[in-house]
Amino acid sequence: MTGRADVVVRLTGRAARRERALSASLTEVTLDDERVVIVKRSDDPGATRAEAAGLRWLAGARSVRVPAVHGHDGNWLVIDRVTEGRPSREAAVAFGRALAALHRAGAPAFGAPPPDGPADAFIGLAPMRNEPGTDWPRWYAGHRVLPYVRRAVDQGTVRSGEATVVERLCEHLPELAGPAEPPARLHGDLWNGNVLWADDGHVRLIDPAAHGGHRETDLAMLRLFGCPYLEQVLEGYQEKAPLADGWADRVGVHQLFPLLVHAVLFGRGYAERALAVAREALAG
């Protein structure tokens, strides 16, 4: 057994019987009572704290399902393992309804971190600052779009002359944002890889970058990287929390944030997509 066994004992109170490495950072551990947990190691203790707080905040809405958090300790996090199954239309509709309920659970402000979560959090491997604000267009521009454009320019992924199209979009966000909405409780990194279709017929969400935000951002990210039965997810969502008129025209505005994050992390291809989205939104 490795040092992960000691972490498991501390955070679950049970001995580790077997370990199976899933990746450099993830290990599946079978406990002495045959329950199975996932031990995750992060390079930054702040990321571990943010993920644990985010999962607990999502669970507190009693809507979407997330793995139970057994605890975190420095760079380590222990959560329940999710046994994966197959996507289905029924699970997708139910997930859409649950996601609507999660968003309705709300947040104190745009950019509000989960209780006990750090202001300096992460989205994937990228830093993400949770700075509360009351006006969504101004907050989204200042804390979700422009910081990543500047970082992309600094690292040469976006040329300085190209950044002006994103800056112009930010200036026009008050007209492009649609009707004002209260802060929603967001998963925050809702791409398909963080949506697990469990073998019990229910969806589980993992790896949140949870914060208060605009609900259309979660939905736009689901569409950005594809999601099985997305139309059924949206059907269930609209049953419980109909979206404001024109939401489909605003998808690109909400995709700009994750595209810029990916540009910072993964390079020029995502930068080009972000610039194209900004141009299209301005052409409107």
Write the layout of secondary structure elements.
Layout (H helix, E strand, L loop, with lengths): L2 H10 L3 E6 L4 E6 L4 E6 L3 H16 L8 E5 L2 E5 L8 H17 L14 E4 L2 E4 L6 H19 L8 H14 L7 E3 L8 E3 L5 E3 L5 E3 L1 H10 L5 H11 L10 H16 L1 H16 L1
Antiparallel strand pairs: 1-2, 2-3, 3-5, 4-5, 6-7, 8-11, 9-10
Helix pairs in contact: 3-7, 4-5, 4-8, 5-9, 6-8, 8-9
What would you say this structure looks like, in words?
- With 284 residues, this protein is of the alpha+beta class.
- Helix content is 45%, strand content 17%.
- It contains 9 helices and 11 strands.
- Strand 6 (120-123) and strand 7 form a beta hairpin.
In whole angstroms, the N-to-C terminal distance is: 58 Å
**Proportion of strand residues:** 15-25%
Strand order of the largest sheet: 1-2-3-5-4
In which range does the helix fraction lie? 40-55%
| Count of extended strands | 11
Largest sheet report: 5 strands, antiparallel
Query: Number of DSSP helices?
Result: 9
Sum up the overall morphology in one term.
globular
pLDDT average, as an integer? 96
Whole-number radius of gyration?
Answer: 19 Å
